[in-house]
Automatic annotation (TrEMBL):
Binds 2 magnesium ions per subunit. Its cofactor is Mg(2+). SUPFAM superfamilies: Carbohydrate phosphatase (SSF56655). Its main location: cytoplasm. Keywords: Carbohydrate metabolism, Cytoplasm, Hydrolase, Magnesium, Metal-binding. GO terms for molecular function: fructose 1,6-bisphosphate 1-phosphatase activity; magnesium ion binding. It is found in: Cytoplasm. This is Fructose-1,6-bisphosphatase class 1. Its EC number is 3.1.3.11. The gene is fbp. Pathway: Carbohydrate biosynthesis; gluconeogenesis. Pfam families: FBPase, FBPase_C.
């Protein structure tokens, strides 16, 4: 059972406060920022749970900077995050999958100025069919010495100060790290509060399970095809799971282990997933849970981004599972 304080579950806000108390230099602004993220995800969760009762299904009728068809819920989620973060006063810059460029939202400077980047709705192709989707976020310090939002956001993932996601599934869970382990909170629908349910999660080192969209494997680099042939012959037999929502596929691996990969493909020669608000936050969570995350040739958190929508291949999961894939890639 999760840790309790005086017999009560630990709330997300209490947990952040505890972490901050371990940092005497912290000013408390950070927990105010995180409460903004938590509020926005509760709003997004309520839209998702009422899908069909309110108009959230279908396309918005526009295409985003990624060239993807934008869903109504992508925009509703994006607006919810921008609104709640906009009120915080300590968020200097935001960037989103759905916005062309990062934007300065307040002139706050110095130690208490943060950058927040997010994928407001992850797994868009699953919205209309009631399959789990998510929201992914990451927080960096806003470097006062760098001019302009476009440059300020270009920091390697190793500089993240916090990251997480919310999975809108059979229950709504928030998974979070600020570099002191990876922890999970479950939304109590009765009180609308995120409560600590798993602390210091550890990804199993090895689980015979992989997750990939094999429909594209003919376009994968040879090493990945070699891995897929190898796992099918291995004893005990590996199982395969693929939801098609990155957050849902990653969450299963966080709890049960295995490996997820989205390599370079013919359609996406640099990979499909975005470094800043998909691969980096999940890599931070995975490493804090004893797992690993790679581009196939480099640790994700060491990648220097070229721009805010930088794409990257991703191999993520239990350490030994990831090593098995990387060994196949190197065994060229
Ligand atoms: O349909 P594909 O090519 O397998 O891609 C699925 C992947 O694309 C994504 O939907 C991309 O994320 P968005 O939905 O946020 O654009 C991931 O969640 C998922 O893992
Ligand atoms: Mg996504
Ligand atoms: Mg998205």
């Amino acid at each position: 059972m999760p840790r309790k304080i005086d017999g009560d579950f630990v709330t997300f806000t209490q947990f952040i406060q505890e972490e901050q108390n371990r940092h005497p230099e912290a000013t408390g602004d950070f927990s105010w920022l995180m409460s903004g993220v938590a509020l926005a995800t509760r709003m997004i969760g309520s839209y998702i749970r009422r899908a069909g009762l309110i108009d959230v299904w279908g396309d918005q009728g526009t295409t985003n900077v990624q060239g993807e068809t934008v869903k109504k819920l992508d925009i509703m989620a994006n607006d919810a995050l921008k609104r709640t973060l906009g009120y915080r006063g300590n968020v200097g810059i935001i960037a989103s999958e759905e916005d062309d460029e990062p934007r300065v939202i307040s002139e706050v400077e110095g130690e208490d100025s943060y950058i927040v980047m997010f994928d407001p709705l992850d797994g868009s192709s699953n919205i209309d069919v009631n399959v789990s989707v998510g929201t992914i976020f990451t927080v960096f310090k806003n470097p006062p010495e760098i001019e302009g939002a476009a440059k300020s956001v270009l920091q390697p993932g190793s500089k993240q100060i916090a990251a997480g996601y919310v999975l809108y599934g059979s229950s709504t869970v928030l998974v979070y790290t600020c570099g002191q382990g990876t922890h999970m909170f479950t939304l109590d629908p009765q009180y609308g509060t995120y409560l600590l349910t798993r602390e210091n999660i550890t990804i199993p080192q090895h689980t015979p399970s992989y997750s990939v969209n094999e429909a594209y494997s003919h376009g994968f680099p040879e090493g990945y095809r070699r891995y897929l042939d190898w796992v099918k012959l291995e004893k005990p037999r590996y199982s395969s799971r693929y939801v098609g929502s990155l957050v849902a596929d990653f969450h299963r691996i966080l709890i049960k282990g295995g490996v997820y990969f989205y390599p370079e493909t013919n359609a996406n020669p640099e990979g499909k997933l975005r470094l800043m608000y998909e691969s980096n936050p999940l890599a931070f969570l995975a490493e804090q849970a004893g797992g690993a995350a790679s581009t196939g040739t480099q640790r994700i958190l060491d990648v220097m981004p070229g721009d805010v929508h930088h794409r990257t291949p991703l191999v993520i999961g239990g350490k030994r599972n990831v090593d098995e894939v990387l060994d196949m890639l190197q065994a060229g």
